[in-house]
Amino acid sequence: MKKIAVDMMGSDLGPEELKKGLLRFAEEYPDYSFILFGEKSKLDTLFASDDRFEIRNTSEVIPMEIDPMSFLRKKDSSMYQAITSVKDKKADGVISAGSTAGLVVGSTFLLKNIDGVSRAGLCSPFPTVDYSKPATILDIGASLINTKEDLLSFALMGRAYAKEVLKIEDPKVYLLSNGTEEGKGSKEGREAYQLFKEKNYLWFKGNCEAREALDGKHDVIITSGYAGNIFLKATEGMGKNMSSLIKKAFKKNIFTKIGYLFAKKGFDELSRTMDYKRFGGAIFLGVNGVVIKAHGNSDEYGFYSALKVCRNMIEADIVTKIKKQVQDE
Amino acid sequence: MKKIAVDMMGSDLGPEELKKGLLRFAEEYPDYSFILFGEKSKLDTLFASDDRFEIRNTSEVIPMEIDPMSFLRKKDSSMYQAITSVKDKKADGVISAGSTAGLVVGSTFLLKNIDGVSRAGLCSPFPTVDYSKPATILDIGASLINTKEDLLSFALMGRAYAKEVLKIEDPKVYLLSNGTEEGKGSKEGREAYQLFKEKNYLWFKGNCEAREALDGKHDVIITSGYAGNIFLKATEGMGKNMSSLIKKAFKKNIFTKIGYLFAKKGFDELSRTMDYKRFGGAIFLGVNGVVIKAHGNSDEYGFYSALKVCRNMIEADIVTKIKKQVQDE
After folding, report:
1. pLDDT at A82
2. pLDDT tens-digit series, residues B75-100
3. φ, ψ for residue A225 (rounded to 5)?
4. Mean pLDDT in chain A?
5. What is the mean pLDDT of residues A183-201?
6. Which of B95, B81, B75 lies closest to B2 in space, CA to CA?
7. How many other C-beta atoms lie within 10 A of the C-beta of residue A271?
8. CB contact under 8 A, B274 and A242
9. Could you give the angle at the alpha carbon of B305 between the alpha carbons of B250 and B17, nearest 5°?
10. H, E, C per residue of A124-187
């Protein structure tokens, strides 16, 4: 029986919504059980007495924005305790839809980086034009500016993830850049380019512009966290804008409305292809434990998907695989 | 009679394509004439003898990637000479679909920054969900990392542009950031935030996440060039991906094809809204002269649109307006 520690607090839609995702996941995977951290009185009314749901009362909630010192003082918060349960081997992974900053700080402090990992990073698969070929991108916001050594860690961890979880045989790695030519890129990106060239990594394929990143031909793309976060949110925003324009186009008049009835199947496929919720959230790669950041606004399907990501990481034994990848290079 | 200096070399589709855009523009605006820089033998066959098209032979072409020293040695290049004609007051503005790096270096060196401008920046209006409300964003790639003083220059120039060219009454300025709260953002972004607050600028409205930048509610968004370039290309790429997925959706089967016939009008409107070619390219704001960077792959419509941007900047007397904006603050 595998166990997931769930931070039930701090999400936008509240524990009621997370519960729905949890029950759906629990039904599908009977070999998983859960430790739920949060306000006991609230959780007790939500979850009927059930061996698979263990409830642990905590008195505090980590706010969206938090500095490291404040986090460490909030020892009786649902997030602190959920991470601690992984540290103490009481759970195989932890999931939270709460504060990203808190989860990054707390996991780094409590679980520590894997030996040889310069810095842990937030990683996410991104939908591309090819449904079957998501692109793995990191860091998307744990850091602001990274070093070339951090970027090397991101490359190795991204490869381990793409291999073990996405089942890509020999994932190719690119540096996110403002141009494809050698010599383009941020300061740390250019330094990483030289480092990878010196080390003669065959999996390193040079720079990738943001324009081509989601064309389905790039397996792993690494970047400093600030630029990665801009990339993440720019594509999310553009996807959202395009979706609302598509809706508007079909609602223009009676003819376009009829057009929708005919074209519906094609556009259902488009929605499936671009639906980022199927990826459930981000993975904090590089610490000694499986740590999943579900979207703050996770609904039932979103949280269910994030739990599946957590399960995938546990089943793939990703921490061991990253250790191996880091040692091998 | 106003005059535009045109660099006819270095574009992806060649001078033949630029010519089409030029002729379309020339027909629409009979009060404009042109100095064309490039290989004379080629241009002579393209342009019939016409008082409004003066041809100047140049022997070199600036390559896509060029360092400052190499640019300055290529004095007989079409780009160098075209910029020089603005410096020498022979032309009111210069346009090129060639090397961005060359145009930035050459314009900065030959035209010099406007007094009080810390750094010139590449600026572009971006299509938003609201057709009538483009967002002005700079810098999108002239620099990599900027200082808070640079960001202040960008804010003032962006405001001057949005006021004079887009006719927005009192443009609001935002810092592109990884979070909306104060304290979020890149190092220089956080410093600029404090600077703007100290100076008590009423037009400064805080941080803007990349996700919301193109919602039609943000007038001017400023950023260091590297992040701006990532934003530009991420949105371009996502727009392109969504367009290809829409085409695919309509081509799925016979029903979706019929759907397209009904929905066509709505989707024509969507295409118009998101068509970045209507903006023609980027404006290099902050030097003593009107400098327009047309898209490298400009077709007839794209180059025609870029020429219209050039004309708008000349008619708005943007250099004088920026001088005033910088002095007033």
Report:
1. 98
2. 999 999 999 999 999 999 999 999 99
3. -60, -35
4. 94
5. 96
6. B95
7. 12
8. yes
9. 85
10. EEECCCCCCCCEEEECCCCCCCCCHHHHHHHHHHHHHHHHHCCCCCCCCEEEEECCCCCCCCCH
Q: Which of A177, A287, A160 is nearest to A220 (CA)?
A: A160
From first CA to last CA, the distance across chain A in angstroms is 34
Q: Please measure the distance between the N-terminal and C-terminal CA atoms of chain B and give it in whole angstroms.
A: 34
- The predicted-structure confidence for A31-82, as pLDDT tens digits, reads as follows 999 999 999 999 988 887 788 999 999 999 999 888 889 999 999 999 999 9
Q: Give the mean pLDDT of A146-158.
A: 98
* Maximum separation of any 2 CA atoms in chain A, in Å: 63
Chain B residues with beta carbon closer than 8 angstroms to that of A267: 249
List, in sequence order, every residue forming a beta bridge with B209; answer none if it has no partner. Answer: B177
Locate A268 and state its tokens.
């259902």
Instruction: Give B162 to chain A, closest Cα distance, Å.
Output: 22
Residue B135 reports pLDDT greater than 90: yes
Closest residue by Cα to residue A62 from A87, A36, A37: A37
- Tell me, what's the pLDDT at B228? 97
DSSP-assigned letter for residue A98? S
**CA–CA separation, A193 and A185 (whole Å):** 9
Mean pLDDT of chain B: 94
Check residue B152 and give its pLDDT: 97
Tens of pLDDT, residue by residue over B310-327, are: 999 999 999 999 999 998
Residue of A nearest to B261 (CA): A259
**Predicted complex: ipTM over 0.85:** yes
Phi, psi torsion values for A304, nearest 5 degrees:
-60, -45
CA angle A62, A63, A69 (to 5 degrees): 65
User: What pLDDT does A50 receive?
Assistant: 80
Tokens standing for A135? 């692109």
Tell me, what amino acid is at A223? Answer: T
pLDDT of residue B121: 98
Do residues B290 and B314 lie in contact, with contact meaning Cβ atoms separated by under 8 Å? Answer: yes
Pairing of strands B204-209, B2-7: unpaired
pLDDT on residue A279: 81
CA distances from residue A198 to A146, A170, A274, A292, B172 in whole angstroms, order as listed: 19, 20, 37, 34, 47
Q: Do B234 and A229 touch (CB under 8 A)?
A: no
- Best mutation target, B226, B243, B275, B276, to test chain A (most A CBs within 10 A): B226
Residue B174's region, left for phi above 0, alpha for psi from -120 to 50, else beta, is beta
DSSP string, B52-63: TEEEEE--B---
